Amino acid sequence: MSWTERSRRVPPLGWVALGLIAQQILAGGRRPSRASATLAGGTAVISLGLLASSVTSFRRRRTTVDPLTPERARHLVVEGPFRITRNPMYVAMSGVLLAHAVARRSLLALLPTAGFVVVINKSQIEAEEQALAANFGSDWGRYAATTPRWLSLRPLIRRDPGKATPVG
Question: Which of 32, 130, 125 is nearest to 87 (CA)?
Fold first, then answer.
């Protein structure tokens, strides 16, 4: 069994928990200042709001929220936060880790945030995208071609007559 297959057995929230523990260790006991706590609090509120909105979108469409069984998806959710990123739940989880690093005022504590993005990208998102492509075919292809995997500052769709340019 490959590393990717083994790491996929850890739910994304498990990776977040490991990241938070690693950040605590890397921050070396640094305490939040008033400014870092305010900035981190804002980041955390936005991130948790994005997570809640994403889960609500899945629930409305009555599709699975379980990241370990993406093949059970019944609907391709493309509304709400899924209009700006294909993975708003993972963006939100990354935001929680970012908020914790900011609160701790530690550049080293950013490393687990980057590690989370790499691990989730390789072990989770790739498997989910394969399942969605198998389940939803050309609908998935059009969505993936016009919506970034994470976030992008460039336009989400470059208009070319009859043609979309991939952005993820």
Answer: 125
The C-alpha atoms of residue 111 and residue 101 are separated, in whole angstroms, by 9
The whole-number average pLDDT for the span 57-70 is 90
| Residue 69 near residue 131, CB atoms below 8 Å | no
Residue extents of the structural domains in the chain: 34-146
**Secondary structure (3-state) at 4:** helix
CA distance 157 to 144: 11
Task: Name residues whose C-beta falls within 8 Å of residue 52's C-beta, 6 or more positions apart in sequence.
Answer: none
- Say how far apart CA 85 and CA 152 lie, in whole Å: 8
CA distances from 131 to 6, 26, 73, 124, 137 (A): 18, 36, 8, 11, 10
pTM of the predicted model over 0.70: yes
Angle (CA) 50 80 16, round 5° = 30
